[in-house]
Amino acid sequence: MADGDQRALSELMRRHSQRLYRVAVGYLRNADEAMEAVQEAFVKAHRGAERWDRSAQVGPWLTRIIINESIDRYRRARRRRAAEEPLDEADPHGRWAAEGPSPERRVLGRELREHIDSAVGSLPDRQRAIFVLRHYEGMELQEIAGALNMRLGTVKSGLHRAVYRLRELLAPVAR
Amino acid sequence: MSLGHARWRRRTALLSAGALTGVERESAQAHVAGCPRCAAELAALSDTRRLLDAEPPAEMPLPFAELEARVLARLAAGVPAPVAAPARRWAPLLAPLAAAAAVALAVWGVRPSHQPVASPAPASTPALMAEAEPARPAEQEMLQRMERLLAREQAARYLNEAQDVLVTVTSGPPPCPKGMRRVEVEEQARQRSRALLARRASLALGHEEVASAQPVMAEVEEMLREVADLPSCVRAGRLQAMQREIGRRRLLMKIDLMTRELQG
Fold first, then answer.
1. Which of A10, A45, A70, B251 sits CB 3.0–4.6 Å from A27 for a disulfide?
2. Which domains are assigned to chain A?
């Protein structure tokens, strides 16, 4: 890699890595996975730099890369789990429902984190992406629509569903 | 619940998420102020919001230097470099802040008026070819290369989105309120299936660059048709049968492999 490239890449990472990490960990709910996602996002950004639309800002472009990377990673992990654990026909909802925290890990704070992990983790991919970009990144709905390549109405509807689903799942600990 | 209230319920949710601005926000606040039901909902949603806000902000578990070293090592370890990448391709990314803004991304700079391929929505191939007609041989070659790249990218994106729909529909559907052993199929997933089926016709599948994707595309199309035909509340067994069929065909793995092949 040319020196100029490396300096520019390092500067870009310095400016955006923490922000991208927050998005990734908000989506993946796992620090190691999120760290790897950030790493991979910068590798992909480097590879795709020549395709970057010069009229666009760098921040949203990187946000799009990290959220897509997070979605891909989550899907791969979900497929691995699905392959290891076939469906139980007698209890179709059991495995599909969000799992609560294990009894032995019911420690204050950690328990809350587990509840949130579990609740956010149970949102469908797109809803989760919308929620994460809104809640952890504070993006406007129109920006989210741009980052996820969705219509504004779809973003509104996805966020509305996500908010109500989280309310339902977190109600026992929110009181 | 009246249709009117359903609309306000949606706006209340967006209000609680801080996602409304301007007139929309003001009208939602005014409605909530005069609607006890919506006010109660907003209060409950605000409790959830406070809980989510109580989560401490995430900090990277590794020092920046280590992340930097990992990325540089990963790039040095053989991530294939894009064809004819310009030597200083990173400089434009810092354009708002540095004088290096003037450095162009030469690969895509055949014509200054061309927008490079934006990640989510590339320019259409016909438009590119229409502009290419008067091009000189070198430009013609460049545009043909771009056309091949676009055909591959469009096919890869299509497969990726289709995989998303199939995984979303068959994994983790919430129970359906209509009855036991029934699960909900998101309207959005069904709409996306229909949109993907409609979009397939516009893919340049005859292009030799993506010819190898055709068998997988045919299988994907078959499954998307099933999703598009699903009702909003379906027997869990039906989705399980779909999931088994997807597994039997190893369709998700095929999509992964084909997407990687198309993306180079």
1. A70
2. 1-82 (1.10.1740.10), 102-175 (1.10.10.10)
